[in-house]
DNA sequence: GCATTCATACTCGGATATACTCTGTCCGAGTTCTGCAGG
DNA sequence: CCTGCAGAACTCGGACAGAGTATATCCGAGTATGAATGC
């Protein structure tokens, strides 16, 4: 039950991209956060496939959000990287073994699966309640106004990684 | 973000043990559900370490619940097998990179981690709301009364696996 | 008949292989920008 | 001065290794049972 580390990277990248006015190369985003360039690129591909970001090829290319930051939720990003399948997978073991329940009696998911899925639904609902815009606003509140403006300026500048 | 398959096994085993009047060998529990004997034994060890079940050694030994079924929640079982660490691990990448936030400004978890942890809290709360006794009652409702009594009878009998 | 001893069979527990997924890297295909030549 | 073209540099995208974890298994340590034995 561990989440890919790339989720954290992707969320922070989305927050940074939300204030950029043009495409941002993946290498630039990686340098901003001090993470592996090639591995972050792999996760950004997942975001592209999910339709959260658009990739612009060629010189001056990069990634940019396809929708407004307020329309992208944490759930979208998590599911883009982790997949949409639930963490708990019911294998219907009640239908196995010597005292197996007959299949015709199993028209509904068993109680265990129901409870597990309800819990995951609560988890997804909580994630869907937070948008990238919310996180950006929160960052401005805690780290001071102008923080994201500085990030955007650095992203389009030619300053070296360090 | 996948959960160990052993979680499903362990929960069903707890439901079965809740109606047994003595220790049940792991091999018997495995045969009841048609799963690997040795691998289930490994998961039952985790339940033992977590204090959910007690192991009785020797002939006629086995596993039995240490507490009443109503006092054991799904969360207890899940955490016994998956660990108590959250799925999302914040690596504080905001403190990395050329525009890193200074450590003294990071006294509180960043917004991303807060949202992720809040979602996991909702998930844990939902799991903690369901007990083994609840699942046992639900099973009796759907599969008919006496189902668990039959399981308990089979567990202490000498009937072969199949 | 009863207590003691001993062998046995059965249990759990940890140490040991294998498969799969996550992590990290590399190189090729494609596109856009830029500089330059020509009109 | 404007247009068209060619080169180059930079981008993404998918294919390729290594590490760590989940899965599955095996064998040894320990204990309660039960029978056999002696009193």
Name a few traits of the molecule.
homodimer, mainly alpha, 162 residues, 7 helices, 5% strand, DNA-binding
Cα radius of gyration of chain A in angstroms? 20 Å
How would you name the oligomeric state of the polypeptide chains in this document? homodimer
Order of helices and strands of chain A: HHHEEHHHH
Mean pLDDT of chain A: 94
User: Which two chains touch over the largest interface?
Assistant: A-B, 63 and 63 residues
Please summarize the sheet with the most strands of chain A. Answer: 2 strands, antiparallel
Distance between the termini of chain A: 35 Å
Strand content of chain A: under 5%
What's the total helix number of chain A?
A: 7
Strand adjacency order, main sheet of chain A: 1-2
